[in-house]
Specification:
Chain lengths: 193, 224
């Protein structure tokens, strides 16, 4: 599905086309699910937030200006809604230790053992990052957004996005060797920040 | 080398270093991309860091659990909420315009209009197509809602796609229900249970067991 396809879909949603809305829901469900879960680290919040997001998309589709990509508009709503849900539960505190076991365990391990270990390592490292840094890492590497788009999504200046990413990279760097990353990259330039 | 040149080199290095993750995800604008690539050609440290960015990106993507698929129940709940929000906004939105037009209309014309509406309503009633006459909804919803509602149990019903009219009728006859509103934009009907109908919970259980019914839920009194 191209950006233009998504635009058309959003226009139809704005015209209260229910089928287009269901289609959009199915397209965005996996992406939003992953993002909201990584961001909040609360599986109990994900479905509720996701539905709130889609409801906001339904209600606000006619206000989508087409200035940005539909995906960054929708992710902006998702980010905002997830933060609001966390605040509402007044449990918005960073709890690094609790994140040790990533809550999605619906997958059968078998041959995925290595992948799983890496996921845990990376997942734990990500979970230790402050929420805003985690958001930037996810949006960049997993969802493929540009930094101006991320600035839109997080409603912050572009320079803040770069700074957050810079700090996140520094912290993630410590675990990269354990993932087999770093040694091969000839990155032996000492501990430049 | 003078100090000025060294400082500008250092700035270029910092700038490139900051942008590497977005070179790695291929989203830099052409101009920035060219600048960063130019710097990369002369900076081993940034090349190594770019490699780390790419590997982090790959590890993150590879480590992602397979994407979940939505449970049908969740979509149903969402659609029901969408439908509620639609009902609320259609109740809110046209009202001011309607009222303005009404106020701006001279009194004799109002009476004539009202009479006409009443006649239309009677006609609609006579034709048994009350549920499709938009005037009915507006009129019945407008004055104090609690006074108008009959108090008979109501439920919201969404039929499965491609359900035939006969099937809908059969279902409605079976539960002794009649349509009082709908279809909404999402295809939901409001059904009121007539005298002699089973208790609402029994009816709901019966409906949910029907292949032709994809959603059946009670309408609470405050929703009316």
């Amino acid at each position: 599905m191209t950006v233009d396809d998504e635009r058309i879909l959003l226009e139809r949603v704005a015209a209260k086309d229910r089928r287009a809305f269901e289609r959009l829901y199915h397209i965005y469900y996996p992406r939003l699910f992953g993002y909201i879960l990584k961001l909040t680290r609360r599986i109990d919040l994900v479905e509720e937030v996701l539905n709130d997001v889609m409801l906001a998309v339904w209600a606000g589709a006619s206000r989508f200006a087409g200035r940005s990509r539909p995906s960054s508009w929708i992710f902006g709503i998702a980010h905002h809604t997830a933060l609001k849900a966390l605040r509402r539960r007044s449990r918005y505190v960073e709890e690094p230790e609790e994140a040790a076991g990533e809550p999605v365990a619906d997958e059968e391990p078998e041959s995925l053992l290595v992948r799983r270990e890496q996921r845990d390592l990376l997942g734990q490292a990500l979970a230790r990052l402050p929420l805003e840094q985690r958001a930037v890492v996810e949006l960049t590497y997993f969802h493929g957004f540009s930094y101006p788009e991320i600035a839109d999504i997080l409603a912050c200046p572009a320079n803040t996005v770069k700074t957050r990413m810079f700090h996140a990279r520094r912290r993630l760097r410590e675990i990269l060797p354990q993932l087999g990353i770093g040694a091969a990259s000839g990155g032996g330039e000492g501990d430049r920040p | 080398m003078n100090r000025h040149a060294q400082e500008s080199r250092e700035r270029a290095h910092q700038r490139a270093l900051e942008l590497l993750p977005w070179l790695a995800n291929d989203t830099l604008a052409a101009g920035e991309r060219a600048t960063v690539e130019q710097h990369l050609s002369e900076c081993a440290e940034c090349r190594a860091e770019l490699e780390r960015c790419r590997m982090t990106r790959d590890a993150l993507r590879a480590a992602a659990p397979s994407p979940p698929t939505p449970h049908p129940r969740q979509l149903e709940q969402l659609l029901a909420r969408v439908e509620e929000s639609e009902a609320a906004s259609t109740a809110d939105r046209p009202r001011p315009a309607w009222r303005q037009t009404w106020k701006a209309t001279p009194r004799p014309a109002r009476i004539a209009l009202f009479a006409q509406l009443a006649a239309m309503l009677l006609l609609a009633l006579a034709l048994g197509r009350v549920d499709r006459a938009p005037a009915y909804r507006t009129l019945s919803d407008r004055p104090a809602p609690t006074a108008v509602t009959s108090g008979a149990p109501r439920l919201r019903l969404v039929f499965a796609p491609r359900t035939t009219e006969e099937e809908m009728r059969r279902v409605l006859l079976e539960i002794r229900g009649r349509l009082v509103a709908g279809p909404s934009v999402l295809g939901a009907y409001t059904v009121e249970l007539g005298a002699g109908a089973d208790p609402l919970s029994v009816v709901l259980a019966h409906l949910r067991a029907q292949a032709s019914v994809s959603l059946a839920e009670p309408v609470t009194t405050e929703e009316r």
